[in-house]
Design a protein that fits this description.
The chain is mostly helical. It has 6 helices and no strands. 18% of the residues are buried.
């Protein structure tokens, strides 16, 4: 269940990115900072993007309370793949082959991290082992 909550958080964050870009595209090319800030409250898509981010953050907190950070945080890289796919499909953005290769590497890393789920998902801090000491610096 915790992984499903994490995936939901990632998807909502990706949707937030698409809504932000879509809303900002409606206000023209190279708008000023004041204009961009005003769209937060005047453009439904931009507002929706921020809303998705807020809800995504809440779901992420729930997932984080149930999963190790070393598992949950790398999984967020999946958002890069999802956002690029949605930008291509919904916004008509061109995605060069080299970028697709990079996303494939990211996706492979996410799969490797995902395969570790359950192996140490409930592990706490590492057991104390023998102390590693450095040699003392030479006397002068």
């Amino acid at each position: 269940m915790a992984v499903a909550i994490l995936v939901l958080a990632i998807c909502l964050g990706a949707l937030g990115q698409i809504l932000l870009k879509s809303g900002l595209s409606q206000i023209g090319d190279r708008p000023g900072v004041a204009r961009v800030l005003a769209t937060i409250f005047t453009n439904l898509r931009v507002f929706g993007g921020f809303f998705c981010y807020g809800v995504s953050s809440l779901f992420y907190l729930v997932a984080l309370s149930r999963l190790p950070l070393s598992y949950a945080y790398p999984m967020i890289a999946l958002s890069y793949v999802i956002v690029t796919y949605l930008a291509w499909q919904l916004l008509g953005e061109r995605v060069p082959l080299l970028r697709i290769g990079g996303l494939a590497i990211i996706l492979a890393g996410v799969v490797v991290v995902a395969l570790t789920y359950g192996r140490q998902a409930t592990a706490g801090p590492p057991e104390p082992g023998p102390a590693i000491t450095r040699p003392a610096p030479p006397a002068r």
